[in-house]
Amino acid sequence: MSTIRIEDIAHVRYAAPDLSKMRAFLEDFGLDCFAADGRLYGRGSDGRPFVHVTEPGEARFLALGLRAETLADLETLAASEGVPVEDLAEPGGGKIVRLTDPDGYGVEVVAGQAKGEPSRLPADLPVNTASAKPRLRQTVRLAPRPAHVKRIGHAVLKVRDFRTSEQWYKDRFGFITSDEVEAAANVPLGAFMRCDRGDKPADHHTLFLAQLPGPLGILHAAFEVTNLDDLMLGHQHLKSQKRQPAWGVGRHIMGSQIFDYWKDPFGNELEHWTDGDLFTAADPPQKQPMSALLAVQWGSPHPMFAGKLPPPPGLVSFFMTLRLRVLGLFRSKPKETAA
Ligand SMILES: [Fe+2]
What we know:
Layout lengths: L5 E11 L2 H11 L2 E5 L2 E5 L8 E5 L3 E9 L2 H11 L4 E2 L7 E6 L5 E6 L37 E10 L3 H12 L2 E9 L2 E8 L7 E2 L3 E4 L7 E8 L2 H13 L3 E9 L5 E6 L5 E6 L3 E2 L6 E4 L1 H4 L1 E4 L15 H16 L9
Parallel strand pairs: 1-4, 5-8, 9-13, 10-19, 14-17
Antiparallel strand pairs: 1-5, 2-3, 3-4, 6-7, 7-8, 9-14, 10-11, 11-13, 12-18, 15-16, 15-20, 16-17
The chain binds fe (ii) ion.
The site of fe (ii) ion (FE2) has 5 residues, from β9 and β14.
């Protein structure tokens, strides 16, 4: 049993040398931005005080924020880790426990933050399909605009040793595996993990830990937008502002989301998504081949497959080494001959 169960991801924290440049991008991306105490904050429409933080400094990823269910959970976690529960001196207040994961990433577990009134999202229009026509005497007229980010949904971290990191996050926060990704049979590369919310449905993944070659870092953070129209309007807007696209639009296999990835001015990747899978704690984990990770059900192929992005340094040798190791596992031992 884990020390506590986290409720959801709370925020991602970065450092960047130019907060106004970051703000301009985040506003194009659809976050509601404000400055406080020298930091830049981005919030969604869900009433949470912030989902994205940028501090002044050399561009880098600083921390993953997770939300505990109660303040009592924070006390339990802090006692188990031998660290204090501190006041969270940021918008929304509350309390925080600061930890460091096996790869040195900051993990900020928060609780008791003030929650404001959610702001209104664009309405979901009825959709006419071949089998059902609920929209009658009503047109579709969409004005150009950035997407509406409702909330943060997940983050993807590169790790040095998947099993070590998996254990660390599961032991403390009660994550459940939705899909474990294998490079070959029984050679895990990472896992999409969701929150244990009992009978309450949870996103297919809140955290994906991936053991991949190259330097450590956050691969992306993902934000839920209103619906497909909103995501596509957001895509058009980011394109019109000459922002750097990374991958999309398409529909993922694991998690099933419709996705759209963009890079901020400092090279961090952020994702818009909509229409993802939900599971309860009772749903069993699945295993998936590596090929399902970057493949799409429809839409843009991953830039690496489309030849627009070279494989990252070390990837080819990594998979060659892995292949040799896997082949070694199945190589039959020479039979001993009787003397
Ligand atoms: Fe994602």
